[in-house]
Amino acid sequence: MMLHELSHSGALAPFAVQGLRIGALDGIELHQHIYTDRQNVTACAYCLKRRHKKGTAQEREECFHRTAVLTLVGHPGSIFCEQEPLQCIEDGSDKGSEKKAAKRLLHRIYENHL
C-alpha cells in the first residue's frame, strides 16, 4: 500500500521515464555465512545450504539467505520496494534459483501495488 500511496501523492514522479517507472529485479545474498558444524546453530526455515571448500580438510556446510529484491531506479537514485526470500524446499540454493522467488515477488507486487 505504501508504494500505491507514494505514487498517488506524486512522490514517485521523478522516477518516471516517459511516464514509465523502471524497476531492477535482482537476487542477492544476505547475512554472514554460518558454519553449522562448527557452532551450535540451528538453521531457520529460510536458510539455504551449500558445501564450502568441497573435497578439502576445511570442507564445511554453509547456511545463508538469498532473496529476490525489486528496486525502483531513476534520476534521483533508487528506492527499495519489496523482497521475496528464497525458500530452500521450493527454490533450492543453486545459482539462478532466484527465478521462482522473483516470480512470486512480481505476482505479489502486481496484486498489492498495481
Give a short overview.
It is built from three helices and five strands; from the N terminus they run αβββββαα.
Structural class: alpha+beta
Number of self-contained structural domains: 1
Return Rg in Å. Answer: 18 Å
- Helicity level: 10-25%
General shape: elongated
What do the pLDDT scores average to? 80
Indicate the proportion of strand residues: 35-45%
Number of helix segments? Answer: 3
Task: State the end-to-end distance.
Answer: 9 Å
- Sheet of most strands: 5 strands, antiparallel
Q: N-to-C SSE series?
A: HEEEEEHH
Tally the beta strands. Answer: 5
Spans where pLDDT lies below 50 across 5 or more residues? none
What does this structure look like?
- The structure is a single chain.
- With 114 residues, this protein is an alpha+beta fold.
- It has one domain.
- Strands 1, 2, 3, 4 and 5 form a 5-stranded antiparallel sheet that branches.
